[in-house]
Specification:
Elements: E1 5-10, H1 16-23, E2 28-33, E3 38-40, E4 45-47, H2 50-57, E5 62-63, H3 71-80, E6 84-88, H4 96-99, E7 106-110, E8 118-119, H5 122-128, E9 133-140, E10 150-157, H6 164-188, E11 203-204, H7 220-229, E12 236-240, E13 243-256, E14 272-275, E15 280-289, E16 295-296, H8 297-303
Parallel strand pairs: 1-2, 1-6, 2-5, 6-7, 8-11
Antiparallel strand pairs: 3-4, 7-9, 9-10, 12-13, 13-15, 14-15, 15-16
């Protein structure tokens, strides 16, 4: 059996299961390329990326270029003589010259059923849109964003209360199993590649901080999907009385109301009910006052009672 020399481009936890699967395969991961370490936590200390930690466990070298067009980085990759590049949530667009270095090109583990949700935030955007299914696509990396032919798909349902981190955790092992299969096929001969239908393409743009400051005068299910999708960052925010709060968990209720969307109703059963613009009620279950810990709606209301008829404003 032919073994490939693989260079792996990935940064967050989402990319770790596929990297570990390749470590356990017949192929050799010759290097991991990760984004630079970033300061995190209260002390703002530099923290290694998840893929860097995984590479260290297997004594595999890690490259962390600040610029992908640096001559030194390009030379280092060329010297590795990779047969195949594998990309998983690396976080940057790879220049053409880099794409052409591996003998068999590069493949990408993408978190959607292409051509839907090409781009930087496919899982977030699918949850925000209220999709009931997503998946993994293993595609060839080409110049146009996420537009290359697809080698394989795996499907993953999205439950009505699933949030972005939960879906990403479910997708990671699917991508891990699928990418090894595709790498094996590439090693054994050219597997079939199905071109995407570009006319059906949709785009999942990067999540921005301002998106969490939503207008609360929206249908209850739309509010619910935004709360699920804008996690773990930036989270949906609102002004509950004088306090700005982040909303971590909610669920649509069976109740209906004639109140205007965003209006706070009488609390009960440990939840904070809010009117949707469609007359349905959204039950807020967990929220986080600014600068404080996440708490249940019951605990929040015990210390911060909100009068019926007050409104949640954009924050």
């Amino acid at each position: 059996m032919v073994s490939l020399r693989i260079i792996y481009f990935g940064t967050p936890q989402f990319a770790v299961p596929a990297l570990e699967a390749l470590f356990g395969s017949r192929h050799e991961v010759v290097a991991v390329v990760s984004q630079p370490d970033r300061p995190r936590g209260r002390g703002h200390n530099l923290q290694p990326t998840p893929t860097k930690l995984a590479a260290a466990r297997h004594a595999v070298p890690v490259l962390q270029p600040t610029r992908l067009r640096e001559a030194a980085f390009f030379s280092a990759v060329a010297a590795l003589q990779p047969d195949l590049g594998v990309v998983a949530a690396y976080g940057r667009i790879l220049p053409d010259a880099l794409l052409e270095l591996p003998r068999l090109g590069m493949i990408n583990i993408h978190g959607s059923l292409l051509p839907k949700y090409r781009g930087a935030a496919p899982v977030h955007r699918a949850v925000i849109a209220g999709e009931r299914e997503t998946g993994i696509s293993i595609m060839r990396v080409v110049r146009e964003l996420d537009a290359g032919p697809v080698f394989a798909y795996a499907r993953q349902p999205i439950g009505p209360d699933d949030r972005t981190p939960e879906i990403e955790r479910a997708l990671s092992p699917l991508g891990a199993a699928l990418v090894v299969t595709v790498a094996d096929s590439l090693a054994d001969g050219r597997p079939p590649e199905a071109p995407q239908n570009h006319a059906e393409a949709t785009y999942a743009t990067k999540i921005e901080k301002h998106e969490g400051a939503i207008d609360w005068d929206q249908p209850a299910i739309r509010l619910h999907d935004l709360i699920r999708g804008l996690q773990p960052w930036p989270l949906v925010s609102g002004r509950f009385g004088p306090m700005r709060c982040l909303v971590h968990r909610a669920m649509p209720g069976a109740e209906t109301t004639s109140e205007k969307g965003g209006t706070i109703l009488t609390a009960g059963s440990g939840a904070l009910p809010v009117a949707g613009s469609d007359g349905r009620v959204l039950q807020i279950l967990e929220l986080q006052p600014e600068g404080k810990r996440t708490m249940s709606a019951r605990d929040f209301l015990a210390g911060h009672p909100l009068p019926r008829g007050s409104r949640i404003e954009r924050a």
